[in-house]
Amino acid sequence: MNQIELKALAKINLGLDVLGRRENGYHDVRMIMQSIYLYDEVKIEKKDTPGIEVATNLRYLPVGEDNIAYKAAELLKEEFHISEGVKITLKKHIPVAAGLAGGSSNAAAVLFGMNRMFRLGLSQKDLMERGVKLGADVPYCIMRGTVLAEGIGEELKVLPAMPKCTVLIAKPPISVSTKTVYEALDSKEITEHPDIDGIIEGLEQQDLRKIAGCMGNVLEDVTIPMHPVIDEIKQVMKDAGALGAMMSGSGPTVFGLFESRAGAREAQRRIREKALTRQVYVTNIHSVRRNHNAD
Fold first, then answer.
1. What is the DSSP string of 97-150?
2. Is residue 100 annotated as involved in ligand binding?
3. Containing H/E element for 6?
4. Which of 77, 92, 137, 171 is catalytic?
5. Which of 2, 8, 47, 179 could cross-link with 109 by S-S, CB 3.0 to 4.6 Å?
6. What confidence score (pLDDT) does residue 28 get?
7. Catalytic residue at 195?
8. What is the pLDDT of residues 180-224, one digit of tens each?
9. Can you give the pLDDT at residue 187?
């Protein structure tokens, strides 16, 4: 095998709760992650010359050691003494720095792809153990599907699959620093926590309305006052019939869950009409067949 092409899927958080801060600065979280069918295309090729080469369709992305996909390749090359060079081509569709785990998903795809390409014999668990060294979301991006994440995000438990629905993704043209959001959260009292157990019950019952009704993200209390456009986008989605609309991760991306594709299309039209953002996509929930890790 001289090359492999993979889809690196985006994720949304159906629920995100922060339980506290550890002495080392990491936060204890309880969140429900869900992969969606919005993806980057990742191509890995063997090359004659040694080293790692990264190419991307976005000029502003780093392509050297600061790129997490590069770090993923470097990690396996060093551990398994792989002498052959690799070229990684990232065709980015997932909005960058958006709370959708695009970078983590690229890294997960590189770990998965190189494991296959070089026949390293690593299990999914092995890949996840290596992935956490690159970032807290990488193990989930290897696992994918509907998953409860606890601890600092590394303790993962598979949940019943999310009921099928249409998902609208809208990323306003602003940047949000995850570090700044968590630091601001530390300085305030969290008074309302999302109903994570309620979401899990909704998943067990395959009740989309219950899931949507229990959704919540404590980080909204920090990010929305900084960027009120997030709340405006949520409201447009709800007015167009979203069962629930919420910020994903530390933002600024907002997603809405819709029973019908027509409702999502209408919300997309209104968001564009109000010029809230140009990055707005209609997509679907991505369910994982548990004996497969990648497309």
1. TSSS-HHHHHHHHHHHHHHHHTT----HHHHHHHHTTT-TTHHHHHH-SEEEEE
2. yes
3. strand 3-21
4. 137
5. 8
6. 87
7. no
8. 888 888 767 788 899 999 999 999 999 999 999 999 999 999 999
9. 64
pTM of the model: 0.92
Q: Torsions phi, psi of 293, nearest 5?
A: -110, -15
Q: Angle at which helices 124-131 and 102-117 pack, to 10 degrees?
A: 130
Whether 260 has a binding-site annotation, put simply, is: no
Q: Any idea how long the chain is? A: 295
pLDDT score, position 264: 98
In what helix (H) or strand (E) does residue 174 lie, and over which residues does it extend?
Answer: none
Distance CA 267, CA 282 (A): 10
103 is in an annotated binding site: yes
Core vs surface per residue 93-109: b (16+ CB within 10 A) or e: ebbebbbbbbbbbbbbb
Helix, coil or strand: residue 203: helix
- The predicted pLDDT at position 183 comes to 85
* SS3 annotation, 96-109: CCCCCCHHHHHHHH
Regions of the chain short of the pLDDT cut 70: 187, 290-295
Classify the phi-psi angles of 25: left when phi > 0, otherwise alpha if psi is within -120 to 50, otherwise beta: left
Helix-, strand-, coil-residue percentages of the chain, each rounded to 5? 35, 30, 40
Amino acid at 255: F
Q: How many other C-beta atoms can be found within 10 angstroms of the C-beta atom of residue 232?
A: 17
Q: Looking at 11, 71, 77, 92, which residue is catalytic?
A: 11
Q: What letter represents residue 229's amino acid?
A: V
User: Is 83 labelled as part of a ligand binding site?
Assistant: no
In single-letter form, the type of residue at position 291 comes to: N
Binding residue per annotation — 101? yes
CB atoms inside a 10 Å sphere around CB 69? 29
Confidence (pLDDT) at 132: 92
Q: What is the mean pLDDT of the chain?
A: 93
In DSSP terms, 6 is beta-bridged to 42
